Amino acid sequence: MAITHTPKIASGSITQFQAVQSSANFVIGATTNLSSIKFVDLSTSSATNNTTVYIIENGIVDSTIFNLGDGYVCAVGVSSSGTPVRVTDPTCASGLNFLGYCDIHGTITIAPRIADAANVIDFGATPDYVDK
After folding, report:
1. Best label site of 66, 80, 89, 129, fewest CB within 10 Å?
2. Are 18 and 29 a contacting pair, CB within 8 Å?
3. Residue 122 located in a structural domain
4. Residue 100 maps to which CATH number?
């Protein structure tokens, strides 16, 4: 089950299903600094200047609300508009800044992190754990 909360946004606007980043005690839509400022949540509503936005802080996003469709099990980044995409998607613009990960059916688990280095597992590779 996902943990949700309702912070206020600092300025500008946040669209529904946009990744958000933290700014002091507020959140902002993830549209700039996509590879350097850690994502914190996923919005489930739209909002504008100093109003409340509903967000999922961590956990599984209900697939009936939003999912990425069938594809690779891999990390989830964002496009240049802050919309979640698989890191294997050519529109992914967030580098090693991950919103979370998804399963084969595209169900997203929010688990933000910035990786120190590329890991093939984040990009869909499956290890066989055979030591050669």
Report:
1. 129
2. yes
3. no
4. 2.40.300
The answer to the question of residue 127 being in a domain is no
Tens digits of residue pLDDT in 57-102: 889 999 998 999 999 999 999 999 999 999 999 999 999 999 999 9
124: in domain: no
66, 109 in Cβ contact below 8 A? no
Two structure tokens written together for 50: 């100093």
And the tokens for 12?
């500008």
Q: State both tokens at 73.
A: 């099990």
What is the identity of the amino acid at 1?
A: M
**Beta strands 74-78 and 97-102: pairing type?**
antiparallel
Which pair of tokens denotes residue 29?
A: 């839509």
Q: What is the pTM of this model?
A: 0.87
Nearest to 110 by CA among 27, 9, 19: 19
